[in-house]
Design goal:
Layout: E1 7-11, E2 20-25, E3 28-35, E4 38-43, E5 58-59, E6 62-64, E7 71-73, E8 89-95, E9 98-102
This protein binds FE2/S2 (inorganic) cluster.
């Protein structure tokens, strides 16, 4: 059994005030959110048409897809209204005051990657 490998991506002290942080880990685009002091990590890709969600606005505990406006929970990744699939989640933990994320050990496929420009 393979144990998840966690990669530190941002110091807790440097996490942005707007509640979201985006980066890339081993080819995976990661959207990190913080709600009520708890971090959550998702694949930064809208399940509808592959927009990068991290460029979207945050409203009422959700991030709004910049392409067509679908809303996804910043905690669960569930699509409000259920119109699209839930966001793919990644495990998160704190290591030495840094937020660390475990992405899958495989390279992301075309169905895992977002389009860049929106
Ligand atoms: S690409 Fe996100 S709602 Fe269409």
């Amino acid at each position: 059994m393979n144990e998840a490998v966690f990669t530190p991506i941002v110091a807790e002290a440097d996490f942005p005030q707007d509640g979201k942080f985006a980066t890339s880990v081993s080819g995976w685009n990661v959207l990190l959110t913080k709600v009520d002091g708890v971090y959550h990590a998702f694949n930064d890709r809208c399940p509808h048409a592959a927009s990068m969600l991290s460029t979207g606005r945050i409203r009422r505990g959700h991030i709004m897809c910049p392409l067509h406006g679908a809303m996804f929970s910043l905690v669960t990744g569930v699509c409000a209204g259920g119109g699209y699939k839930d966001l793919r989640r990644f495990d998160v933990r704190i290591e030495h005051r840094h937020v660390a994320v475990a992405v899958p050990p495989t390279t992301p496929g075309m169905d895992d990657l977002a389009i860049k420009a929106v």
